[in-house]
Amino acid sequence: MNDQAYIALNLEPDFNEFVNASNVICEILTGDGRIPNNQKLPLLVYPKAFSVLGNDPISMCQSLFTANSWQGCWRNGIFSYHHYHSTAHEVLGICMGTAKVQFGGRRGIIFSVSSGDVVVIPAGVGHKNLGASSDLCVVGAYPPNQTPDLCDDRATSNSGDRLKAIRNIKRVNLPSTDPVYGRNGPLLKYWKY
User: Which residues share a beta bridge with 138?
Assistant: First the structure.
């Protein structure tokens, strides 16, 4: 489901020129037998949510996430195997390069992401890098008081591990802000506040 362009309002002045209005792509992903995904919260994709021209997009993306109370910023790529986090939601800001990413496990959906795109991944939703440009740089972060674990589709094939992961996913708190648009962002609408 796509939504009309989201207009960023009430941003910190430092981000007004950096953040763009973006269409919201919203997808609920069901379990695939190996990756539990999240039955309640949709994956959110904000194409071209921030500008990469004329700025240091990596520092600006980290500052944007931090200003909106998302923490634990890191810089890297996206793992090239199916994995998910059962103890935290995650945001990915694509600062440089391009990648083809599969969300939801082996039968999930595939998105091509590029510089300026942001993906908000609910706890439990699988993601895998299917191929990327050599200059790919991603900034990731998590809501306050959430620390990600790392689960892959092999580790949760055991039914006890899978049940534990599903229990963890259900206990992850909703963030109080959108990582890009703050307190008035689309995450609060789509994640049913």
Answer: 76, 94
Residues forming a β-bridge with 35 = none
35 Cβ contact list (under 8 Å, min separation 6): 82, 84, 104, 105, 106, 108, 124, 125, 126, 153, 156
Q: How many CA atoms lie within 13 A of 185 on its CB side?
A: 25
Please name the residues in contact with 112: beta carbons below 8 A apart, sequence gap of 6 or more: 98, 99, 100, 101
Question: By the 8 A CB rule, do 9 and 20 touch?
Answer: no
Overall fold of domain 13-177: Jelly Rolls (2.60.120)
Q: Which pTM does this prediction carry?
A: 0.90
Q: Which of 37, 126, 118 is nearest to 81 (CA)?
A: 126
How confident is the model over 97-125, as pLDDT tens digits? 999 999 999 999 999 999 999 999 999 99
**For 116-154, what is each residue's pLDDT tens digit?**
999 999 999 999 999 999 999 999 999 999 999 999 876
Q: Give the largest CA-CA distance in the chain.
A: 50
Residue spans of the domains in the chain: they are: 13-177
Which DSSP string corresponds to 119-169?
A: EEE-TT--EEEEEE-TT-EEEEEE-TT-----EETTTT-SHHHHHHHHHHH
Q: Provide the token pair at 186.
A: 């689309």
